[in-house]
Amino acid sequence: MTTTRREPSKAGAYVLDEQVGFLLRQVSQRHSTIFAALIGEELTATQWAVLSKLFEVGATSQNLLGRLTAMDAATVKGVVDRLMRRDLVATRPDLQDGRRLVVELTQVGTELVGRLLPRARAITEETLAPLNAAERSQLEALLKRLR
Question: PANTHER family from the entry (predicted)?
Fold first, then answer.
């Protein structure tokens, strides 16, 4: 079966390459490729999000950690479970509310985050390399408005 290319879009036509969701997905795929190249097989992006957020805010409830990293309860639980098996995080009951589980970095987790922070910064730098400083600031501001 052969495909034929259609004429350029007429005003109001739907063109995939012009859709914000498609463009965001392409940028996300590029960023994911850079992440995989620089972090390697040590961590997934969701695992890094949990570890770096714990490094940033300290011990916190698993529920709040999910909200802070934009993960649903099942996803954050799975990520925390995998990180616990690697001795990167530990959990304990919340002293004020025994129903809550507090998640915190272990010493091994803290050391790993410290070691990977320069690579994480390099991921952002490489992702944003095509943009100048003003464009970077503008993109960040616009993305924050859209989330």
Answer: TRANSCRIPTIONAL REGULATOR, TRANSCRIPTIONAL REGULATOR, MARR FAMILY
